[in-house]
Amino acid sequence: MLGNFWFKKEKPLLGLTGMGGGVGSNLLAGGGGSSMDDNSISFKYHMHGTDTSQFILYVQGVDANGVWDNSIQVALNKTGEQHADHDTEWTTVTYDLTTAFAGKAVKFNFVYYRHSSNNTTGPCGDVAIDEFKVKVGGVETDISISDSANNWTNRGNQSSLANAKGSVSYAGVALGTTGEKKWIITSGSTPSTCTGPDMAADNNANTNYLVFESSGSWAVNTYHYYCVHSDNSFTVPS
Q1: Contact yes or no for 97/34 (Cβ under 8 A)
Q2: Which partner for 233 in 88, 105, 125, 146 could form a disulfide, CB atoms 3.0-4.6 Å apart?
């Protein structure tokens, strides 16, 4: 345990390269031990591929109209390949909401920052999310991708980090099941053989999950911020 940030390894993870991306400077401080039981998020992620860039989860406060109110915390910040192969188990992350967001409504904004200045110009850079659960006031809601609900909206490619953070306030488009350089819904393995998990976190090839499909050509010295965020906000009790 580091601060209020938990990693749970469900079996040994090959190729896990540590904290990465400076996430240690963005941890929530303090927080009682009981807060994790009452107000928290948990999810699983998978980052296999030699062209994987930077993957960030922002927890963002929103007002009554769902517009970002400039309060923000980083719950995950990873750069580069974190999982050695398709069948390496997904990593589970749990994050406390109480300290920074008591009394606030929040949304969850995943940003895949694809920067090719480090020569990550190939297609092998998929990033996947699954089993996203929100617990507020001790009541847990599963907002994972499923057959009956998407729960997430694609905010596309933003031109700057500031726009990426503000994208929770923008109109977006529904998630599809095909495409390149975008967040999509899929099941089983991803289209590219060099990247992505072999199936969802529950090891069921028919279960849907959320993935950034990085197929396509990427120019050198270009920077892209691809955003997907939760449709609904959740109010953390005071």
Answers
A1: no
A2: 105
